[in-house]
Write a structure and sequence with these properties.
The chain has 136 residues and is α+β, with helices and mostly antiparallel strands. The protein is built from five helices and five strands; from the N terminus they run ββαβββαααα. The protein has a five-stranded antiparallel sheet with strand order 2-1-5-4-3. A hairpin with a 2-residue loop joins strand 3 and strand 4. The model has no long low-confidence stretch (mean pLDDT 84).
């Protein structure tokens, strides 16, 4: 079964990227986070729900907000948006279970602590290298 989500970023309410996993990094993570946070804030001025998704060429960016965090995933636009939202919802649940409110009360703002979260969600993310080798 193909993985829908290619890349993922998790931002706090200030637009700081706590976690990101990207394969072809074209934009610095914190710059991307600031842009996405600004776009979402602008969209909330136009609509109470804010930004839910947008497409660039053949990529769809899907956003969900949970417990003050913004979860952003990109995927091929050939996948159904509903399935991507479901996967992103499961990732957000894992994040909120692992990093509770009590964790954030003691957190010292070091984002490197979130790097281990990749292990928790590997099964939900597309791996272009595996995809390449499986094509043979």
């Amino acid at each position: 079964m193909p993985k829908e989500i290619q890349d993922i970023s998790i931002l706090n309410s200030n637009g700081i990227v706590l976690f990101n996993r990207v394969f072809h990094e074209q934009v610095e993570a914190q710059l991307f986070g600031a842009l996405m946070s600004a776009l979402n804030s602008f969209a909330q001025q136009l609509s109470d729900d804010g930004l839910k998704n947008f497409e660039l060429s053949n990529k769809r960016f899907t956003l969900i907000k949970k417990k003050g965090f913004l979860f952003i995933a990109n995927s091929s636009n050939k996948f159904k948006e509903k399935k991507v939202i479901q996967e992103l919802g499961e990732i957000s649940q894992k994040f909120n279970n692992q990093y509770t409110d009590d964790f954030f009360k003691e957190w010292d703002n070091d984002v490197s602590i979130f790097s281990d979260f990749k292990k928790e969600i590997e099964d939900a993310l597309e791996d272009p290298i595996k995809k390449f080798w499986n094509g043979f």
